[in-house]
Protein 1
Amino acid sequence: MKDNESILVVDDDPDFLAVIKRILENKGYEVETAASASEAISLIRERFYNAAILDISLPDADGTELLSRFLERHPDIIAIMLTGHSSVQNAVQSLNRGAFAYLEKPLDPETLLSILGRGLEKQRLVLENRKLIEELEQHNHINNTLLSVSQAVSQSLDLQEIIDTSLDKVAQYTGIETSFVYIHENERLVLMGCHGLSPEASKTMEKEVDRDTGIIGRIFRQSRPVIVEEWKDSTEPTLAFLKNGDYRCFAGVPLAILGESIGVMGVATNTTDCFSHNNIELLTGIAREIAIAVRNAQLYEDASSAKSLRELDSMRTEFLANVSHELRTPLAVIKGSANSLLQPDVIFDEPTRQYFLQSIDKDADTLTRLVDDLLMMSRLEAEALEVKKTPYKLTEVVDSIKDRLDNLTARHNLILNIPDEIPMVNIDDVRISQVLTNLVENAVKFSEENTTISIEAKANGKEVIVRVVDEGTGIPSELHQKIFDRFFQGNGRKSGRRKGTGLGLAICRGIVEAHGGKIWVESEPGKGTKFSFSLPVN
Amino acid sequence: MDKKRILIVDDDPAILRLLSTNLKARGYEVTTATDGEEALEAVQKDFIDLMILDLMMPKIDGIEVCRRIREWSDIPIIILSARGDENDKVKCLELGADDYLTKPFGIAELMARINTAFRHRGDAAVAPAQSSFACDGLEINFAKRRVTVNGKEISLTPTEYSLLQQLAVNSDKVLTHTMLLQTVWGNEYSSEKEYLRVFVGRLRKKLEPDPKKPKYIQTIPGVGYHLAMA
């Protein structure tokens, strides 16, 4: 028998009440008596009784009516009706209304105790079942909440997004508006996000806290929840910011995976006693889901930076292979030509000897240019190219390299079409000259002799567009981006013309972009090529 | 004897001119091609005795040219490439190239390699004293340079044939790596073990019923090779 099960006995016979009270109290029940329906009703309003023994005929009411009132208030109450012989009919009716049993007077105490015992046993089962169901529902609620949080936070691999979503979800599912997260990073706990804090509070919040001291550090180190009721008395510095709000109660849970802490989540409320065991369990569960998502995001970040390092490494290897190839070709000509002259088995005639010497001379120049281009390229890539911008007239720039352009286009018709009214541009004239020379060189390489190559310019609002146009082989559209990649070599070179370094257009792009401009190409196979670049007007 | 014609394939005009000047000065006829397509055309059209092939070329690259030519021709192919990567070298040899030279190169070295390639063709080689070799289905007629397995004729490149012949006439001995490299290729090749490995692989592919479990050419680990007598 459970301790202190309480029984209310209602009967208008005081002697009967006294006897029953004694019998029941002897059995360990807590007994209250009432002599009228009205007295009984006021008693039942005050508290719950496990059982009620009701006389069916009371002076101020019908016992079955009273039964209904009792059951209305406490549906689980075990009611035993007492009847005289004449009112058995009423008693049966009361069973239909929800009484557990009825007994006829005169009462046999043994029978009463036995029936009461069975009734209370049934009640205990009902109450226990109900508790189990409630617990199950609570668990379900926790599980559903965790599932929702887990789904929400696993939508992203972005650390900040995960933290922000998490704190939103904490508010949504627990009703706790104020929350924050610290994540372990380089031996410190770094504030990654907060929710629902007043502006003053969030301003005074520590952006980084020590992992070895303070309450946040303790939760992290011990990987256990901590609850502070009425923290206002505490001198905890890491929670001092809560003074700037109407907060009374704080709880912190570790963000942990397999016992290893990766951070701390804190929540605060302005009520006390709100962190029940269930609430802390729920918070711990949510924190675990957040921890998993955070760890995934961290791993993803590590993996992708490792991947980009690998990509960088393979680009470097490819670059070295390309450089090596580009260096070896002119070297092969230099070495082969010199070596030819040194062979004892053949004596070449004078023109051939001259030819070998010229080849050596020419490819030594090619090598020099390649080395210059490589240096320029590495400066551009390190963003270390010095661009000394001065206001210039484009015509001046072109004039300064006119001799070189004439030389390059000796077998082509060079046309310059740069109107005088083109505004001044803010440029490094040496670099822009190089862009023009490279573009004209390209045009020559890919055009038949006696075709026209023109340099044009026009003003277009805040920029000046410069164009180098040829009537050469043209470039298929799928290569329009690729040709600006370093070491890209086109195939349409006119026969007998040497390959370049494959860096010319990459350098042009670098220089133009360093001026804040853009470079692009318009071309179709067989229809010539038009390279354009823009320069901001002074 | 007619002059030998060498096809030079390179997209760099300076290299083409350098090579052709040197080859012509040494009595060779020269044909040039500047890309893979022209090279394939030239091999089909002209009587080419040897080919010097660059790898990085427009249209069809050197590796592809090598692969396609080996489908129907056994002319010696010397790769002349600015790519010094060991992988490229092995890949080209496996595809049927006879030799691989890296730019920059010495003229004398190139000439020596051309001579080695021609020697494999049998022009300068001394035919062995015995006239034929037979063992477990493999027959070699040294006079006709003809190889059959179970009566089926096997087409070998000159270098492959030279290597097989060397193994056959010495079938009572184990031939060391160095011995084979020196006799089949030349003294300057004595450390090029890759060549030997690749060419033994090529021979096994053509001769052996199961190249993974060779019954003719046996590997003597760490020493060399041996052509097994039945």
Protein 2
Amino acid sequence: MKLSTVAKGVESSLFSNGPSTGYNFGYLNEEIKREIRRKILKAVAIPGYQVPYSSPEIPIARGWGTGGLQITLSIIGPEDRLKVIDQGCDDSVNAVNLKRFISMMTGCEVTTETTMATLIQTRHRVPDTPLKQGQILVFQVPIPEPLREVEPKVELCRRMHAEGDYGLMWVRLYEETVRWGRVTVGARYPVLVHGRYVMDPSPIPRWDIPKLNRNEALLLFGAGREKRLYAVPPHTSVEPLEFEDVPFTVEDQRGKACELCGSRDSFLDEIPREDGLGSRWCCSDTDFCSRKRLEVSRAKGRALILKKDARI
Amino acid sequence: MASRGQCSPVLRVDNVGKIYGPGCPYCVELTGPEHGRNVCPKCLSIVAFHGISFELFETEVLGIVGESGSGKSSLLRCLHLDEDPCSGSLYHKEVDNGRRDLFTCSWQQKRTIRTRLLAVVYQSPHLGLRMGLTAGANVAEPLLVNHHRPNFGAIRARVMDLFNRVELPTDRADCPIRSFSGGMQQRVQIARALACNPSVLLLDEPTSGLDVSVQASVLDLIRRIQWDTGLPVVIVSHDLGVIRLLTTRTLVMRFGRVVEAGLTDQILSDPQHPYTQQLVASALT
């Protein structure tokens, strides 16, 4: 389908895309897409601010990535190349199903390569390959409100955001530091966006937090169940909340390397051994891992050729 | 203690009034001590207080005394900007040189004023403290509010310093506040109130829920802190003993109006208004 037919909106609903669907391009109708796009523009204009939106019905259950899917479906165009990951993995059931659904509804090309994708929907990870200008990363967010942990009342949370009153959040970090000597938040580490709003970065590991800072790609966050979306525009500052003398740290992976590719600078998953003795480690980002393995084997091949040459 | 002379008041309260309910043109006329009620007979609104004006000067301790329902706690809530009054204005020396009415400030400004300038200690620790947190965290909260990247060590040291000042054992700083006794919770409230070096301290019956010996030690603490820092204090109480011990000047309130105002010694030894006479006569000595 050509871009021109999509842009005409109403007509596009007459054209079914792909082999078997009678649905509008991107499943959602044009009015809904326009509403979500408008909310995205607002979110981009106010980095880190949670914008309420309609969160329309789509054929997956709320809590299974509806927020991310709605954003993806409303911004995707026929020229886009799509990648969907779940915990860094391209092949998990959820990622594969979402990918199949989106490509069925749009006819878009899908890819597993981070560098090739223009649009990446993700659950709980930021790819280990650095993102580039022009790419969009869409997060699936279970709980968009970072203050939920410290203040259960929605009204008070909104007022605290409005007034920039993050004392309670700091108190939580203070208590943890008193108790454990460091902040023990694993995933969902609270971050300050553009020096103004405290934001929930979705349950990504602490490892990924520094990657959000001044990222070249546009980061969009959708929480379908909670009907909120928010955004971090490219090159925006994203700082983890930290004390001056107790700095933020990422997960300690010293002495560990991926069993498959040998990488030490990517986030590693722990896999317990079958015999119960210790564990194995391997990359959480499958695309990063396979690319690295390719590089390693190429280098090995080159080395082998050089050796042969030397012998001759 | 009050050195007035040319100095301007720290806090100026001008004709403040609060009516709970729909309100009608007769509310003010038909209530007050001369009518013996604070509920308007026409519209059944409650006139919590009306036409209250006073000034609070540096190093001064002002007492507000009155019976339950006389509007003294509601007045204090308005002074702490927890509630908006229906009429009147409030000025603070450090906000726009005392020209800006605090009631017209935005929510955000009010919050800053509340944490930086006006500290409060409530009768019930449940109102002033967060019961889910540790004692130390309660004291640290006002210190953490307006910081971009606070220094943990500095804040921790300040919390311990405040614990020492209110005579709490520092080794209990990291215990849940729920595990503290009533008197200790009041001390934690005082430490929290002093955390940001406020310019006015508002006390709402700080010792009413405590037994007599603990009352004495908490009052002693408040008096010592006031002497050391010269912090101006407004204290609301129904207990004439507390008023006698702490204050230099007193307002007597009844049915939402000030019926008598003056130096504490004068009011207690020579009460003019019949209600004050009754109050003084009925005090246990």
